[in-house]
Amino acid sequence: MKLPAARGPVSRRLVDVLRRPAGSVTPLPTVVPNCAEDLQITLFICYELHYRGFDGVDERWEWDPGLLRLRAAAEERFEREVRAVVGGLPSVPADAVGRTLVDLVAADDGPSLARYLERRATLAQFREFAVHRSIYQLKEADPHTWAIPRLGGRAKAALVEIQVDEYGGGQLARMHSELFRGALVGLDLSDGYGDHIDAVPAVTLAISNLISMFGLHRRLRGALLGHLAAYEMTSSVPNRRYGNGLRRLGFDADVTRFYDEHVEADAVHEQIAAHDMCGGFCADEPDRVGDVLFGAAAALALDRLFAGHVLGCWQAGRPSLRVEAAAVAA
């Protein structure tokens, strides 16, 4: 993956420094980005060093103390903003966490981007949607896997059961990230990891950054589980709609397979995630119930903001990307 383009003074300085050897005397920024685009691309770059890294960037930057200080400052602001968006959450006993997650999902009243894509979206709009989703889907499951060594008992077993399916049971062709790659190819879009990073806005980066932030902090392991539960519990119906939308536009099973796979798999996963994974975790650590609910609510909140952005742009007759999808097509 190439280093993304900077989006403000802090990310510009970060990108410049990362082109030098780790431990360079050139100082990293010490201020927090003051605009959303600069903040989110800064966080994304910092986080990606823990995944596949960047072409030509010294891998030792991953644990550079100066870079970690910058990341921590940016994370503090990001977490504060997310908590403000989520607002207050109910206080419930550990044995009620599964039911409460169901209630949170049922109460979510975000705009239905899935319904629009099913019934009305043009091919150009569907391609834009795929570009947005590529930022997370090409590493689907990876951020949530950070939780495995941080858990034990029933919660760990449930998470592993979910992740085994996400990784296709160890078969490359069935890995969900690979299935999504097939959808990109079918839509005549570049399918390389990180190819579309410069095309997507801050709201899309924030969705990916949220999972990485939860995954890379042990103190947020409960939020990571709640986040995954929310994803699994809100997946089946939207993915059925996405697949139907692609079929309406004339695409066959080679392109819809990613979405069709999630319809069946996530119908099973939602019960495992809510009751076995989150319920088991909270039974072992009842003081973490609030973290689990926060993670779920944060996932729903950021998806609402994303859907509002995309639909708002389309209704106004403009693209939802920073650059049009055609500019990043294969």
Automatic annotation (TrEMBL):
Source superkingdom: Bacteria
Entry-linked InterPro entries: Haem_Oase-like_multi-hlx
Name of the protein described by the UniProt record: Iron-containing redox enzyme family protein
Native species: Virgisporangium ochraceum
Pfam families, alphabetized: Haem_oxygenas_2
